[in-house]
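Step 1: inspect the first sequence and its tokens.
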Amino acid sequence: MMLPTSFIPTSHLKETASVSVTVEQRQLIHMAASILLDYPVPERYAHFPLIRDEIYSAKLPTPVLNQLARFLEAPHVATLQELEKHYVSIFDLKRRATMYLSYYLTGDTRKRGTALVRFTEAYRAGGCEVDRDELPDYLPMVLEFSATGDTQIAGELLSSHREGIELLRTTLESSSSPYAGLVSALCMTLPAIDQETKERYLRLITDGPPAEMVGVTALGPLEPFTLGETLGSR
């Protein structure tokens, strides 16, 4: 039975424990999540069996493998039509389950444009240019960059938007979505969250992404990307 969306079980509010993985395993997990979290067009869906084979043969840590299997073995994934329908019902209709990471930090405020520029600058700092008709903060794109580009820069992008990723995971868990397994597996490959990030995550649970506040710089200045700085620092 799907849980009522008006409430979030307290068990879903607990952050996912980090799991030790090798660089190669992290790249595989992030590349798989990049493809599986993207919109399931027929060309992408056709690669699911190959991804499944790669994941099951990679000797991943059991907790990570179990989370990935939650998606790969879910009934929703059995047919493209069912998966498309479920994808739209979750990611297109739920404000707290967006794939666009900067939205959790800035909402639809004027700060959003600056935040998006910082993603583009981060990719350029890693020697890459965006070659896709998609906003640069799109989680599958960030994960592809993590798997194939500069892992240090990608790690900073993900860590600086960790509270948004945790809110996405929590929303998916509360909606009984198999996509929760993919985001949980991702979180397991990231460093443990600190107390400040946890507090921001809990505020997001309560308040949701911010709304426009004319004349108020609630988040402080968002400076251009510089390697070694926390991108989401306030």
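Step 2: inspect the second sequence and its tokens, then contrast the two.
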Amino acid sequence: MDLYLPIANLSVNALVIVALGLGVGLLSGMFGVGGGFLTTPLLIFYGIPPTVAAASAASQVTGASVSGVFAHLRRKGVDLQMGGVLVAGGVLGSMVGAWLFKILQAMGQIDVVIGVLYVLLLGSIGGLMFRESIGAIRVSRGAAVAKARKRRHHPLVAALPFRWRFYASGLYISPLAPLLLGFFTGILTMLLGVGGGFILVPAMLYILGMGTQTVVGTSLFQTLFTTAVATMVHATTTKAVDIVLAILLLLGSVIGAQLGARFAARARPEYLRLLLAVIVLTVAARMLLGLAWRPDEIYSVTVA
């Protein structure tokens, strides 16, 4: 079932795109990640231009985040004050990211930059996840348990001025820390089309010192608004959002997330994390191969 994508300017098999969204949604439901950091590379592998893949993935992440935010709001798992500061930083970062996107696009380097950033991010995150999951498996088999780390924000955060009380998170820190964190995530959202949760959640835990009861909900809250802003900025500046592509992805991801959640309830979490780490490292290796591999023929002419 071929379908023409007006912005990407090519025809794709709609069932393949839905299946891709289904796979990403399945990972989201199984592992508790947004899946946006895998959507863009997979679209690129399928042949979608990197600029369109990144911009459309951002809009897909926006839609996928809505239900999660409402679920966490109902159980009071969102620090709205912290989320507001993160969103403010994310909006500013999106504006700077759009400026960088247009500059790199004008230079003809945006595709390379997207690829390099994904290799670095997925390689580092996949490596950390792999190490953590191997440690968890060893503990489950009888190895000594490491001493639990006391929850405390980073010393650099403690040194920042103008402290506020974030009551829902139980923190007394400077708002400059979450503002800068949101700013960095906003830039990544514009350039890569990711929600940023795979960076935001660990940073909120280990840098800001937030408790686990509010981290996921607050991260989704920031992701929802930052990706929405990024989508609007892309639509009005870079003109790279393909709404047909985003709808197909969202359709598959909604179904996949439900199936993944059911499967995750029956599997051991340490083995699920190991599987996700292997998937992330495999995608990073494939991205690196695409950047480094030199084809035998750079140009080819086809005679009809």
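Step 3: confirm your contrast with the notes below.
Residues 2-290 form one domain. Strands lie at 2-5, 10-13, 164-166, 171-173.
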